[in-house]
């Protein structure tokens, strides 16, 4: 066990244990403490003497950072950073890291699983069998994947991974992304189209974008109206990307065939929420990121990133590298 030189506080985490983090902390000479904070004041109290914090959902705002002057690094359990004020951290010289690629295979696997279950009518068929019916009509019409278009909104690591897997199954894959020019192709050969075109052409529309001002309610009533009424929507990115009320309306009135949702605006979703009462929806509890492999990698790398900063080394993942001027690389 290394001599303790720094203190890291896990300000919130819903994982079953912190054993992986504790083992790495012992190797790196880090004292590790944990809390379950929900508010700014709780974070301030829990991390009062911390050199770094690890965070899952708790708010890390400018006010929090002002009250925690000793904090030099923030590690986010996951990809999204919408609860962290990165600009405020940068202004105060605090390094912010995430783990952008730990769940690439897992989230894309989950997106495909939802898409395939919906495309083959597995919900209707399973429920029919359980009710004593062998009627195939509720699932019809079904189509072979080779005649269908798999559309992707967000051609980052996860979106392209989902596209590669869909292409292997025979889908024609198209996608849109603000960083890519319509009319070109990705390195995988996927056609890059406009947002309007991906809505209009997709039989499966899979969402893989971060949540921000430009993507909040990106899939709203107008976007849903532009989609095929036979299409299915899959969301494994952020709940706020989809206007839930508009989605419920489209699914209820026949404007959209079905939806597979791992994330919702309201999380956890109440059992009596309208979306939970629809038979043409598959809901999963924000688990797309999870596999035994991704779970271990996420925990190890989240702490490893901040431990490297505290040791004067450049971490594997850093969102504001300008604060690392002068560190060993």
UniProtKB/TrEMBL annotation:
Signal peptide: none annotated. The keyword Transferase does not apply. It comes from the Bacteria. Residues 112-288 form the D-isomer specific 2-hydroxyacid dehydrogenase NAD-binding domain. Keywords: NAD, Oxidoreductase. Belongs to the D-isomer specific 2-hydroxyacid dehydrogenase family. This is C-terminal binding protein. It comes from Tsukamurella soli.
């Amino acid at each position: 066990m290394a001599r303790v030189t720094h203190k890291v506080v896990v300000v919130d985490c819903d994982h079953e244990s912190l054993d992986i983090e504790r083992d790495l902390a012992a190797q790196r000479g880090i004292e590790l403490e944990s809390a379950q904070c929900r508010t700014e004041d709780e974070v301030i109290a829990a991390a009062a003497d911390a050199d770094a914090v690890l965070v899952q959902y708790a708010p890390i705002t400018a006010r929090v950072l002002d009250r925690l002057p000793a904090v030099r690094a923030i590690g986010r359990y996951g990809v999204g950073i919408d609860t962290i004020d990165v600009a405020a951290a940068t202004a105060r010289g605090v390094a912010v890291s995430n783990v952008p690629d730990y769940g690439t295979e897992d989230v894309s696997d989950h997106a495909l699983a939802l898409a395939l279950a919906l495309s083959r009518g597995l919900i209707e068929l399973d429920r029919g069998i359980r009710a004593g019916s062998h009627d195939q009509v509720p699932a019809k019409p079904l189509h072979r994947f080779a005649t269908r278009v798999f559309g992707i909104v967000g051609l980052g690591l996860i979106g392209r991974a989902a596209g590669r897997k869909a292409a292997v199954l025979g889908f024609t894959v198209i996608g849109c992304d603000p960083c890519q020019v319509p009319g070109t192709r990705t390195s995988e050969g996927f056609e890059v189209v406009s947002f309007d075109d991906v809505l209009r052409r997709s039989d499966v529309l899979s969402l893989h974008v971060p949540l921000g001002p430009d993507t909040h309610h990106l899939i709203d009533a107008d976007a849903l109206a532009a989609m095929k009424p036979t299409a299915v929507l899959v969301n494994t990115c952020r709940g706020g990307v989809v206007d839930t009320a508009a989605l419920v309306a489209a699914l209820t009135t026949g404007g959209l065939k079905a939806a597979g949702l791992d994330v919702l605006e309201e999380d956890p979703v109440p059992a009596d929420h309208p979306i939970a009462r629809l038979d043409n929806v598959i809901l999963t509890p924000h688990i797309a990121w999870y596999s035994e492999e991704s779970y271990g990698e996420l925990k190890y790398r989240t702490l490893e990133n901040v431990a490297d900063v505290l040791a004067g080394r450049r971490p594997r993942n850093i969102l504001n590298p300008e604060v690392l001027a002068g560190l060993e690389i």
